[in-house]
Amino acid sequence: MKGIFEGRRLVIATKHQKEQVLRPLLEEGLKVKVFVPENLDTDLLGTFSGEVQRKEDPLSTARKKCELAMEMTGCDLAIASEGSFGSHPEAFFLPANEEWLVFLDHKKGLEIYARHLSMETNFGGMEFQSLEELTAFSQKVLFPSHGLILRPGAERIDELVKGITDQKSLEECAAFLLKKYGKGYVETDMRAFLNPTRMKVIAETAAKLLEKIQCCCPSCSSPGFAVTAMVAGLPCEWCGTLTRSPLAYEKTCSHCSFTERILHPHDKSTEDPMYCDRCNP
Ligand SMILES: [Zn+2]
Ligand SMILES: [Zn+2]
Fold this sequence. Notes:
This protein is α+β, with helices and mostly antiparallel strands. The chain is 25% helix and 26% strand.
């Protein structure tokens, strides 16, 4: 792995200061020289506040950001992130932050990505009819260290004010909406530079990505040799029926397709009958 990236320039495709957390991790981990292009408008690919709808899934969107930055700068190494917010896939009532990071190397023909799901987020929004309601919400979502967005209604993109980070602006903006409409809609601004909690999740995703990049294929020594599939079928301890628990993990090299199977990844060769559909239906 050493030498593949060392000394090369790497462009971070961001306009929201994600380099704050990505630069130190990448420069330390890959020995690259990180830079951020000026005038890169990643908002063209979608905004959280809805003025521009994201057209593709997060992975494709992050890949596009990389390609946009590579085209603009002529750099052959790029990284970009894309976040989503909403209900946790397994705990529907709790908000979650999903982050994707994509690392592209056009010189070596590599694409390595990491996905990370965190329950640590201040993501939320609500309608308010008084300053008191607004204040209660703003305290709950860690304002003013975290930015806010105000607008006349949840789906409205006119009279939208983003990036509110001080009490005076918040009150002025709220007073305007309350006077004109008798209500307003407040929500968290999820752009990385206004949301330290999200910035932390991006850093955690980057750590995952680095770990993946640093793991090399035993056959062709390309970076990014990581788990790509789970093989279900760990047998039940009592009756031997194959359960849905993992029997093995598979790592596949995206470069040469070399595959390695890790049998019994959790150090057990049988499953507890409580997870067996026959013993414990
Ligand atoms: Zn390989
Ligand atoms: Zn069983």
